[in-house]
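Format notes (please read before filing issues)

Several people have asked whether sequences and structure tokens are stored in separate files. They are not. Every record keeps both together, in the order shown below: the sequence lines, then the token lines. Line labels are part of the format and must not be stripped during preprocessing.
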Amino acid sequence: MGMPETTDRWTRERVLALPDDGNRYELFDGQLLVTPAPGAPHQMAVAFLQQTIAPYVTSQKLGWTFTSPADLHLGGDQLSQPDLFVMPHVPASRDWADFPNPILVVEILSPSSARFDRLIKRRRFQRAGIPEYWIVDLDTRTVERWRPAELAIDLPTFFAEVWGY
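Then the structure lines:
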């Protein structure tokens, strides 16, 4: 017997009303994403990355480097809790909804978040116009760097040029 299909969309207010139970709750286009609290290697990666990035962000006067929890807005009814993010300089505010979108978002992959990070979040961050999105994979020791780009390549012309016909 299948599970009944629900048409109920989550809202920012509903997500913010959920209990503080150690899980991370995020909302992307009405879809609730729930991930457990991160493990020690994940948190160590966030800490080391913040220590590495923050001096550069400060010296270049790019803004502030933060880690979650944060409840970022991203416009509309979104709610994001990236592992690490850089916010441009803005006047002090008490509400994350008053901030502009981050200029960098970094997610450290974990088994429970990989699909969300690579698909749902990446697409939403790109639609929000966030200029840099990094996915750090500790297991493969790689960093995927995603940047929105309006690039179209005419492949038949490209290959014709390469092969001289």
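For reference, the curators noted about this record: The two ends are 58 Å apart (CA to CA). Residues 12-149 form a domain with the tt1808, chain A fold (CATH 3.90.1570.10).
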